[in-house]
Each structure stands twice: as C-alpha cells, then as structure tokens.
Design a protein that fits this description.
It is a single chain. The protein is 0% helix and 53% strand. It is built from no helices and eleven strands. It has strands at residues 4-7, 10-13, 18-24, 33-39, 46-51, 58-60, 68-73, 78-83, 92-100, 103-106, 110-115. The strands form two sheets. Strands 2, 4, 5, 6, 9, 10 and 11 form a seven-stranded mixed β-sheet that branches. Strands 1-3-8-7 form a four-stranded antiparallel β-sheet, with no helix packed on it.
Length: 116
Amino acid sequence: QVQLVESGGGSVQAGGSLRLSCAASGRTFSSYDMAWFRQAPGKEREFVASINWSGSRIDYADSVKGRFTISRDNAKNVAYLQMYSLKPEDTAVYYCAADQRLARYWGQGTQVTVSS
C-alpha cells in the first residue's frame, strides 16, 4: 500500500502558476500509475491528468490541456502537477491518486484558489 501527501496548493490570481507535489511513501512508487483529480465545491471529483509508471503515457482533461503539465520523479517518489495560466474555474481541492491493478489510493488533497 502507498501513502500520498499533496503539497503546493495556495491562492493565486488568474494567470498565475502553481506547482503541486505528491510525495509517496514506500519503495514501489515506480510501479504505480499516477493521476491528479480535482473537486470544486458542489461538484463531483473530476479527472485532471495522468501519467503511467514510466512516464511514457500522459493524458490530460481537455479543460487543462496546454496549461497543465504532469510529471514524476521515480527516484524521489514524487509526482508533480505544474499549472500555468490558472483560471478561476480551476479553483478546487486537488487530489493525487496512485493506481496499481484494481486498487486506487488517494491523498488528502490540497486547496487551489484562483481569484479573478
């Protein structure tokens, strides 16, 4: 089992940038596919981006393509979400998730607030 801790959230103005980090415990981080999700108040949790274990496959939600970049450092057991050109509609709690076979593990989330 893996434990995940997100960090890097905060408050920024529209057009600003943030980089979220997801630190994973354990020695098998490289065996997990990683993803970022977000949940805005009153809305369902939605997919943002994913990266497979090797970094060879990356996917983004249409709403963030060209603005967000997902990456990972398997040597440091960390996944990242670099966010540029932030919009007020990006305001949400951002969660990282680790997938292995049929199991998904979640972090506790980090708040991102974008003001206009």
